[in-house]
Design a protein that fits this description.
The complex is a heterodimer. By secondary structure, chain A is α+β, with helices and mostly antiparallel strands. Chain A is about 50% helix and about 15% strand. Chain A has five helices and four strands. In chain A, the strands form two sheets. Chain A has a two-stranded antiparallel ribbon with strand order 1-2. In chain A, strands 3-4 form a two-stranded antiparallel sheet. In chain A, strand 1 and strand 2 form a beta hairpin. In chain A, helix 1 packs across helix 2 and helix 4 packs across helix 5. Chain A starts with 14 loop residues before the first strand and ends with a helix. By secondary structure, chain B is an all-alpha fold. Chain B has twelve helices and no strands. In chain B, helix 8 packs antiparallel against helix 9 and helix 11 packs across helix 12. Classes of the chains: A alpha+beta, B mainly alpha. The interface between A and B is large, with 40 and 49 residues.
Chain lengths: ~160, ~270
């Protein structure tokens, strides 16, 4: 049972016991848990894709979504796999194998779901990105920000 | 059931050539074979696109799997055990080789090969617990690779070839030491996987290894390293080995105390 860490600036309150096997009892508190690391740009893209895809996040769909988010840059499927593995190791996402489907030659999908730690890391990244945007808009002026806003609007359409 | 579903589906959509799929399946580590092959199948447009996808993706998948199954601390222990085996075998069998210009470098080549074998075997092992004897498969594969490279060096009459007596003695000792290390510290793919527990935590927990074991092994490794360095330095300086070793130990102790004091200070 992994309890949600408190969000009061500290990680020390919640204590969790993790029973992995009959004779092995791993216990750790959230203070020892991996902190919500600052995410790299590609990790942010992959996490955003998982967030947007909700229940349908698996290798191919995540790759398509990341490609859409990263345009005009080309994104390789291998880079998406590597990042998904890394995010899973950090505890930001969890994965499971689904049932086999005919369009995949009777093979299963590995589906991904965002964990609480991943949500927090993505939140932090979004807040930082907002701060960067605000600062740039402040320095380069509102006209520039409006211009870019229009351009983004066109791209989104 | 999956295969039956796949056969039904393949009537409607174009599917990749069986030979290409078989080759890709062979190259992919078993732990991620199912989903990656499925993704390739779903993305399939033409044979050229399939090959291109495989070339761009498979190496990254293998590297990612190696990163997930390799533990740097345990790899370092293997490297140390192997190098001590080769250096020890050279010391007893042919000391002149150890003193030669390229001696130490030549000994590092089979060590790297064995490490490479262990890394690959761990990455390609099926996930889940393995039998105790199965744990020796990694070092055995690595030693096979090292022997193969040494045979190639001998055929080529390369200056990096090691006398065969040293290779055989060292391989025997290395196999024993590496298998023991792997029994004490099972590979990450072999450890218990808890539902919803990040792999990072499992790595940190050290699996079924008692918490103090790594500290004890590190201390033993440090002592052996000091003894080896001391003997080598005493050969160079002409001073008696006990004196050099005790000087090294005292220096190490002072460094450790200094490090601990500075760590607590910060």
């Amino acid at each position: 049972v992994l309890q949600e860490p408190s969000y009061n600036g500290g990680y020390s309150e919640t204590v969790t016991n993790c029973l992995l096997d009959g004779d092995l009892n791993l216990s750790y508190d959230v203070g020892q848990m991996t902190k919500a690391d600052s995410l790299g740009q590609f990790e942010q893209l992959v996490l955003t894709a998982i967030l947007a895809l909700k229940e349908d996040a698996y290798g191919v769909s995540v790759h398509s979504k990341v490609q859409e988010l990263a345009r005009p840059k080309d994104v390789s499927l291998g880079a998406v796999y590597v990042t998904l593995d890394r995010l899973e190791d950090k505890g930001l996402v969890a994965s499971w194998l689904s049932d086999p489907t005919p369009e995949r030659g009777g093979r299963a999908k590995r589906c991904y779901r965002m964990e609480a730690l991943g949500e927090r890391a993505l939140e932090e990244s979004a807040v930082t990105a907002k701060r960067v945007w605000d600062t740039i808009a402040q320095v380069w002026g509102k006209e520039w920000a409006k211009e870019w806003g229009k351009q983004w609007g066109k791209e989104a359409r | 059931m999956g295969e039956a579903v796949g056969k039904r589906g393949s009537l409607k959509r174009p599917s990749p050539p069986r030979a290409a799929e078989a080759i890709v399946a062979l190259l992919l580590p078993p732990a991620c074979r199912e989903e990656v092959l499925g993704d390739f199948h779903e993305r399939y447009v033409s044979p050229a696109q399939y090959v291109c996808d495989a070339i761009r993706t498979v190496p990254l998948v293998i590297l990612s799997r190696i990163r997930r199954t390799a533990d740097p601390q345990i790899l370092l222990m293997h490297a140390f055990a192997l190098y001590v085996s080769f250096a020890g075998a050279a010391w007893f069998a042919d000391r002149a080789f150890l003193d030669s210009e390229r001696g130490l470098l030549c000994l590092a080549i089979p060590v790297v090969m064995v490490m490479f074998g262990i890394l690959l075997e761990d990455a390609y092992a099926k996930p889940g617990p393995r039998a105790a004897l199965g744990l020796a498969r990694g070092p055995a594969a690595g030693i096979g690779l090292a022997l193969f490279v040494e045979i190639l060096f001998r055929i080529d009459q390369s200056p990096f070839a090691i006398p065969f007596r040293i290779v055989l003695d060292a391989c025997g000792m290395g196999l024993l030491l590496c298998s023991t290390i792997r029994l004490l510290f099972p590979p990450l793919a072999n450890q218990l996987q808890g539902a919803r527990v990040p792999a990072d935590l499992l790595k940190r927990s050290g699996g079924v290894v008692p918490p103090g074991a790594i500290l004890i092994l590190k201390s033993i490794a440090a002592l052996v390293a000091i003894a080896l360095c001391g003997t080598w330095l005493s050969d160079l300086s002409g001073l008696p080995p006990p004196r050099v070793i005790s000087i090294l130990m005292l220096s190490g102790l002072f460094l450790l105390i200094g490090y601990q004091v500075s760590k607590r200070g910060t």
